[in-house]
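Follow-up to my post from last week.
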Amino acid sequence: MSRGLGGSVFDGLKFRKVSSPIHNLDPRMKFVYVIAIFVAAILFSAIIPLAILFVMQLPFVFLARVQRQWLRSLRGAAFLALFIFMINIASSFFTHGYTLFAADWENAGAMTMRFVVLVESFSVFFLTTSPDHLGLALEQSHVPYEFSFAFTTAVRFVPVLAEEAQTIMDAQKARGLELEKGNFMKRIRNYVPVLIPLIVSAIRRSLELAEAMESRAWGATKKRTNLYELKLHRGDYTLFGIIILILAVTIYAFFFIHVPTVRSFLGYA
Amino acid sequence: MALIEISGLTYTYPGATQPSINNVSLIVQKGEFVLVTGPSGCGKTTLCRTFNGLIPQFYQGELKGEIRVANLDAAKEPTYELARHVGLVFQNPENQLFALSVEKDVAFGLENLGYSREEMRKRVDWALGLTGITDLRDRSPHEMSGGQQQRVAIAAVLAMQPEIIVLDEPTSFLDPLSAQKIFDVIHNLNKTLGITVILVEHRLDLTARYADHIVIMDQGKVRLDGDTRSVLSKEETRLIGVGIPKATLLYELLQKEGANLPETAPLSSEELAKMLQEALNQ
Amino acid sequence: MLTIEDVHYKYSSNIEALKGVSFTVNDGEFVAIMGQNGAGKTTLVKHFNGLLKPTSGRVIVDGVETTKTSVATLARTVGFVFQNPDHQLFSETVDEEIAFALKNFGYTPDIIEKRIEWAVNLLGIVQYRKTSPFMLSGGERKRVALASVLAWDPKMLVLDEPTIGQDHQQKENLRQFIMQLQSQGKTIVIVTHDVEFVAECNPRVVLMRDGKIVADGNGKEILTNPQVLEESSIVLPQIAQVFSALNSSDLPKDVIDIYEAKKLLLKKLEVISN
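User reply:
Got it. Predicted complex:
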C-alpha cells in the first residue's frame, strides 16, 4: 500500500460512516457534482480559478465531517502532486531552452492545483458514499446488473481477502518463510507461497459463490426488482442548483472573463 | 405423491473415471426430516446438488436415472425454477453472503425472482423473525459470527418459501453451541412450518434426535435407508464408520450384555438417561 | 519447554484478546486448549512460535524469549498446523511441498530426501509423492500439510482445530496418530472445541474464556464438571451428560469413557454377565 507522508491515499477513499447531510445525498447527484468539478477543472488552466475551485469545496468537506480523513488523502497525494509539479517545471525548462520564466512556475502550480482539486472532489465523494449506496446507484442507473453486483460483491470480500492473506502469510512464516529477507528478486519469489494459496482460495470461493447464486434463482428473470430505491430529495435538488451555478459561472468565465495571473499581480511579464 | 423421488441415479463429474453416486434410489415424503450421513467421499454432497439442478446444469458431467423434485424433473428443469421449491444451504457461511447488509442478502433470491417491493419486505421480515436475527437486519456480513452468518443464509433461502430445505454440512465451521442453535432453527422450521428438511451431517450426536428418516451412504451408494432408531442400532452402520451417538452405542453395549432395556434405541443422552433412570428405579 | 508468564495481548483494533495468561507446558505433554470462539485460544497459541508477540508479559520457548528471536527460528521448535491446509499448499508436487520448510531451514538435499521419505511413510501418502496437492481430496491434503510440518521434526506440534470437517473414521485415525506421536515423546497442543474428541484422548485440558484461563488440569475432571463447562459455554461429553442426569448417589459423575460407563451401569443394573 502506498504510504505517503503520514497518510495513505487510500484513507481518503474509504467510506466513513457518519451522519451528515452530504452522506444522505443521492450518490448519482454527488457523482454529477464530481463531473461538474472535473469539467471546470479541465476548462481552466490558470492558477487563480483552480484555487477558487479548491477553496469552494472546503465547506462540503466540513459539512460531511470527514476533515481528518480528507486531510490524510491530501497528504498521501502530496507525493504525486510534487511529482506533477516537477515534471511540468522540467518540461518547460527543456522546451524553453534551459531557462524558466515566471509563467512556467505559475503554470506548474496550476497543473498541480488541478490535480489536487480532482483528488479533493473524488475523495469527498468516496468518503461520503457507502459501497452499497454506490452499488444501488449503479443498479438504478441502468448499468447491467452483472456489473453493479460484481462491484458490491468485490467490496464485500475485500476485508475477507485481507484477513485470508494475513492467515496465509502466518502459515508460511510458521514453515520458515522469511518475507523480509533477501534482495529484491528473492523477495518477489518469497511471495509465491503467499500468492498461490490466495489465488487458489479466490477461485474456490468464486465457485462456491456461484453455486449459492444459482441456488437463489440467479437469472430467473430479466426484470430484476430491488429491495431499496434511491429517491431524490430536497438536498439533492439543492446540490443540483449548485452544480448548474458552477457550470454557468465556469462557462461564462471561460469565454468572457480575462483571468488575471498571479505574476501580473507580482509585476512579472 | 412423494415430494422427492429418485430412482437409479448415477452421476459422474466431468473428467472423472468413477461415478460419485451410483444407482441411488430414495423417496422423501412431505414434512419429513431426513438425515443423510456417511464417510467423506460417500457422495452425500453430490446428492445434495442434484436436488436443485446444480447437478447436472452447473457441474455438467453425466447424469443417468430419474429424479423428480416437487413434481418437476430436476435433471431438466433450470436451477432458477427449482430454487422456488428447493433451498440449498452450504457449508461455508462466508461464501453464501454477497450483499453488504443482511436485509439485502435475504432479499437476493426474491429480487432475482422479480417480486414486488412490498412482498419482499414482508417476506424478509418473516424470514428474519423465524431465524431469530431481526436485530441483525442492517449488519454487514463481515461483522458477524459464523453462526449468525449461517442463520442469514437460512433466512435467505427461507424467504423464497421453498417446500424443501437442503443443508450440506451447515455446521462444519461452527462451535457446538452455534451448531445447536442452527439445528434448533431447522427443527423449528420442520415442526411448525412443515418444511421438508434434508440435512447432511457428521455430528449425529447433535442431530440424530430430530430425524425420523436416516440415509447412510458409502462410496456413492445408499447402504441403509429407514427409521433412525433401527438404522443406528444396526451393526452394519457401525462398520461403515459413521459417528453413531455415544448414547446409542452405550445402549447397544448394555443390551448385548443382557441389560434388558426397552426395545427402542435412544438417540440422545437425555433419552438414555431417562431409560436408565426407569430401569434403576425398578 | 514452554512458559507463558502473565501475557496480555491487544490487537491493533484495541481489543484485548489475552488478559493475563500464565501457564507452562512440559516436554512430552499432551494439552488440549478449549473454549468458545473468541475466548483467545488461537491468539494464545500464535504466541508459541512468535507469530504474535505479547503486549506485556513473556513467552519463553526452550529458554529463549520469543521477542528476542524470529518466527523462522522458533518454528524449528514449534511446528504449527493451521486449520485449513489450503492456506499452506502451493507446490507442484507433494514432495516439493514437504521440502519447502526443510529448504527454508537450510537442510542439505540428501537430508531433505530422507526426511520426505520418512514423512510420507508416516502419514501414508507415499503414492502421492509426485502428485499435485491440489488434485488430492480434503483429507489427503490435511495429511500433506501435517507431513510437511512433521518433516522437520519439531519438538512441539500445535494443531489448530484439527477435527473440523472430519468424519468419524478420520477423527479416529487422527486420535491414534496423535497418541503415537505422543508416545514418541513429542509435545502436543491441540486447539479445539470438539468435546467428544478431547474426551476420547483424555489429555490435560486448559479451558479459556474471555482471554483468561478458567481451568487447567486433568481432562476427565474438567470435562465432567458442569459448572466450569457452562461458564466457558462448552457442552458436556455425551457419556458425562448421561451420568450427570442420573440421580444415583453411588454412581460417579466423572465418567467419559464408554467402556467404563458400561461396566458401572451393568453393575448397577445388577446384570449377571455370562
